[in-house]
Amino acid sequence: MTTPRLSAHIESFSYPDGTIALSDIMIDVERGEFTGILGSNGSGKTTLLKVMDGLIKDYRGRVLLDGEDIRGLSPTRIYRKMGLVFQNPDDQLFAHTVFEDTAFGPRNMGFAETEVAERVRGALREVDMEDHAGKSIHNLSFGQKKRVCIAGLLAMGHEILLLDEPTAGLDPMGEYRMMELLTRLNRESGVTIVMATHSVDLVPVFLHRLHILSRGRIARGGTPEEVLTAPAEMSDVKLRLPHIAELIYRLKHEDKLPFDRVPLTIGEARREIVERLARGEDKKK
Ligand SMILES: Nc1ncnc2c1ncn2[C@@H]1O[C@H](COP(=O)(O)OP(=O)(O)O)[C@@H](O)[C@H]1O
Ligand SMILES: [Mg+2]
Fold first, then answer.
1. Which burial class, exposed, middle or buried, applies to 167 when counting CB atoms under 10 A from its CB (0-12, 13-18, 19+)?
2. Of 55, 220, 271, 280, most Cβ neighbours within 10 A?
3. Is residue 7, in this structure, part of any structural domain at all?
């Protein structure tokens, strides 16, 4: 067994006001994985990402980054490998221009200015923002701001990205482009990604592994197929099935149509339906 890149075993964490935000968490993220943490509002997603990134420390349990206890690592050691993209880009961006903001991390790491410029250009290219380097942060769209946040971390050479609701607040096209960007970073650049989201329709199309968080606990974990099963189980954790899965589930269980399985994406559903129809046609002949 190889050491997971990131491993979070949290017995419990409570906020100072007594809210128990996390308990009995066991998540291992392997190198190169695209992992999702799916949960409704208030389920503990943001808290969990902050624990994973070393921003919250006073929990019972252990978080290991490449096998090392994160509480023993200096912020510089952590931020060389891993970074958290906040849900609201305005909490993250502060410099005047896109270039300056993206340059902040690598400059702080002590790189020479030519290397900084090189890294910034590369990172902006990765997130499709290279034409906006001189633009004022103020004048960017919400989606562009989110991309610049990601570029800032890539410019530091991060191999692990933790993203808090990266698609929240984006329109459907922006949502799709964000997921495309994350998938590309994961598949082509080998970035390990942990994404917190409540957006159940996105999950099966893009993710390798999925953990459902409910009231601070992991209710289920596995591949999207293993985790997204029946509507009743999803409503127990205040979520629903992806729309397409809900439709096929009902056709199978309420209308007794002969589907072998419940596909989670439009592509899979289309194949299932075409196959079913072809079989029906064969019978008629
Ligand atoms: N600073 C805080 N102090 C006290 N309770 C908090 C604080 N931040 C979050 N919580 C509580 O912790 C729980 C988990 O919150 P959060 O991690 O923000 O969930 P999510 O990101 O899934 O919406 C919620 O019950 C929330 O009210
Ligand atoms: Mg949150």
1. buried
2. 220
3. no
